[in-house]
Design a protein that fits this description.
Helix 10 packs parallel to helix 11. This protein has helices spanning about 5-15, 35-45, 65, 75-80, 100, 115-125, 145-150, 190-200, 235-240, 270-285, 305-315, and strands at about 20, 30, 55, 70, 85-95, 105-110, 130, 170-175, 180-185, 200-205, 225-230, 245-250, 260-265, 290-295. It has two domains: about 1-205, DHBP synthase, CATH 3.90.870; about 225-315, Threonylcarbamoyl-AMP synthase, C-terminal domain (Rossmann fold, 3-Layer(aba) Sandwich). By secondary structure, the protein is of the alpha/beta class. Helices cover about 30% and strands about 20% of the residues. Strands 1, 2, 3, 4, 5, 6, 7, 8, 9 and 10 form a ten-stranded mixed β-sheet that branches. The longest helix has 16 residues, at about 270-285. Bound molecules: threonylcarbamoyladenylate and magnesium ion.
Length: about 325
């Protein structure tokens, strides 16, 4: 992407268009936070329910007080350590932040993304960008420009290509109750990393249809192909012999069966590598017209917790 293109993207955003941009977590659909019509376009394009608020992306923590107020000390500490980065803070919103962005909530979700192109763009604009993941509501988040194009090629004039996302999972979301941090969404920064700063935190992973952290709908991050989570992949393959099957596994799954479509997320068993590959592998499997994707849960620690969270939501009927 050269500077001329970035200039066109800037102009489009100033005019109230929406564009797709890379971040280190997943790609986002971005719009000027001060233009309600542009915000409306995001909800329409994503077919996102009106009760599900958007994340605001800012260029640096220096301008945090333009969007949030009464910022708890722990939030400042977390921002100092993790920004720019894959941590979203839910804070009391400033009055000028529109109710459309926050879905009528008094809080706003905000982060500084850690991607050179996203930062270059944010630094060149005089407004922050609202940017939810660039996928239709409920579907797998995009971790490359190609994934965004698969969803929205026709509808978007600009898809900034910043290469594959280095994390490949959405940001970790932390909110506060009486200034105490609470984990709303497992994400690209492991709970254990956050707890090194905050001490032990409670997890409020919502699972109903009218959640307080709405991203936590039970069915979410889902491919079109049904997913089955099983303890014994070989047994499940056996039971589904008549079907066209794909297997998604952490490390190499050795089998005597002829599973043609196998996605191995990290041969060496590295959770960070597996996280980075997860959505791309799901996108690939989903393109193959399979009857079923079979997988097993990952070790329930570090990023394994986030991966398991996404697999369970993807498998939910
Ligand atoms: O990594 C990410 O966070 C990506 C990149 C593009 O930054 N964005 C992303 O956005 O995942 P989205 O909209 O797909 O997920 C944002 C989540 C939603 O689940 C939403 O419900 C939650 O953040 N959220 C936003 N504002 C909130 C608020 N005020 N209170 C609680 N949850 C909020
Ligand atoms: Mg999303």
């Amino acid at each position: 992407m050269n500077t001329v293109d970035l200039d066109k993207v800037k102009k489009a955003l100033v005019k109230g268009e929406i564009i797709a941009l890379p971040t280190e977590t997943v790609y986002g659909l971005a719009a000027n936070i001060y233009n309600d019509k542009a915000i409306e376009k995001i909800y329409a394009l994503k077919k996102r329910p009106a009760y599900n608020p958007l994340i605001v992306h800012i260029a640096s923590s220096n301008i945090l007080e333009q969007v949030a107020k009464k910022i708890p000390t722990k939030a400042k500490e977390l921002a100092d350590i993790f920004w720019p980065g894959a941590l979203t803070l839910v804070l009391e919103k400033q009055d000028q932040i529109s109710n459309r962005i926050t879905a009528e909530k008094k809080t706003v979700a905000v982060r500084v993304p850690n991607h050179p192109l996203a930062l270059q763009l944010l630094n060149s604009l005089n407004f922050p960008l609202a940017a939810p993941s660039a996928n239709p509501f409920g579907f797998i988040s995009p971790t490359s420009a190609e994934h965004v194009a698969l969803y929205f090629k026709k509808e978007l004039n600009f898809i900034l290509d910043g290469g594959p996302c280095s994390h490949g999972l959405e940001s970790t979301i932390i909110g506060f109750q009486n200034d105490k941090p609470i984990l709303y969404r497992h994400g690209a920064i492991a709970q254990e990393e956050i707890e090194k700063v905050t001490g032990s935190i409670s997890v409020k992973n919502q699972n109903n249809s009218s959640p307080s952290a709405p991203g936590m709908l039970s069915r979410h991050y889902a491919p079109r192909t049904p997913i089955q989570i099983t303890k014994e992949i070989s047994n499940s393959i056996e039971q589904n012999r008549d079907k066209k099957i794909g297997v998604l596994s952490f490390q190499k799954f050795k089998n005597s069966h002829s599973v043609i479509n196998q996605e191995v997320l990290s041969i060496s068993g590295n959770l960070k590598e597996a996280a980075k590959n997860l959505y791309a592998a799901l996108h690939r499997l989903d393109q193959m017209n399979l009857d079923l994707i079979i997988t097993s849960l990952f070790p329930e620690k570090g990023l394994g917790k986030t991966i398991n969270d996404r697999l369970k939501r993807a498998a939910k009927k």
